[in-house]
Request: fold
Amino acid sequence: MSNSSPLNGKRIVLGVGGGIAAYKSVELLRQLVDRGAFVSPVLTQSSLRFVGETTFSALGSERARTSLWEGDDPIPHTLLGQRADVIVVSPATADLIAKYAAGIADDLLTTTLVATNAPVVMVAAMHTEMWQHPSVVENIATLRRRGVIVIEPESGRLAGGDIGVGRLATAERVVTTVEGLFSRADKRELLSGKRVLVTAGGTREAIDPVRYIGNRSSGKQGIAFAEVAADFGAEVTLVSTVPVTEGLAIKVIEVESAQEMFDAVFALADESDLVVMAAAVADFRSKLISPTKIKKKNGAPQIVLEPTPDILAGLGSAKRKNQVIVGFAAETGDPETEARRKLRDKNADFVVANNVLEPDAGFAVDTNRVTLVYGDSMVSLALSDKRDIASRILSFVAEWAFKQSVWSE
Ligand code: C5P
Reply:
């Protein structure tokens, strides 16, 4: 197994915080080592109240460290952080999350976190009340803004017999997320030479110069698709309703309405090998747009709606050979059934379905839980951050396109 895992040969610092879930990190450690990673365990003082140092020393690739001040250790804290390919903190307690968000470095683990440029994965576990406390919510948002990957806790039985959100994610889920970080790097060439068109954000349909009909899409999932496609070597154009900074491999076209998005997409569709329609395009717009602000004193206006052009359906009916089209189905009911209908009606190759009523999926949050529907099949992806979701979907779609000879090697 170790040779086929992208973790083979990677240096991982496994930080263990002081929570009851610390015992589950023993299994995580074992699975990381099984995949060929060199794992250095770092235990906080409070974790030692829950688990024994000897267990981590015995199963780790080197002995566990527990203090900044171990007399005979010639390795300063900065080296651990500098040498690491990734740092995984499991369990990440409310205390550790707060310290890391504030840049506090008062023990070996927090010092290592502050002294690293490597990706950091925080596997959160705590009581529901703590997870929902505004300070924790804000600290998590801060960490995510800085690029830290937070694996959110799952629902289930917690210490003390309570049931709720707070349980540490399974070792399998953590390993998949960490592997995803490295398979990305291994996939640098996967889309090389391919032109990828991505749409992102919700369209705004004007009513008058100040008002519009809009939706809650943040553009995060679409932007993640554009970034990951660029990481995979593609030449990317992102048609977006939210402002995005251009990158070396990402050209950005800003639009506002469904019509503008339609025009931008169709100007590029023919030359695109892959189109990812992640945008939430309004289905209806106002038939008339008042050139001046509608005045309150004239009473409530009648706004007559008309349908917008369906960009995805248009793309599907004009689909050229060697082109792959991915659509989305943000639903509040049964996403799979709707996705299958859209796949057929809009002649897409894939539809990514999600239920936007789930608290950790869909609009504005950083995570998503989706099902990829294609042909007569479908594959469900576990809850993950939107970048990881984009990475897994693009890998799957690219491999499918090569296997089906839609694309040639
Ligand atoms: O039919 P529904 O709006 O749910 O379809 C969602 C999919 O269709 C998304 O991929 C969205 O980008 C695309 N769409 C479109 N043009 C529209 C409406 C939706 O391209 N007018």
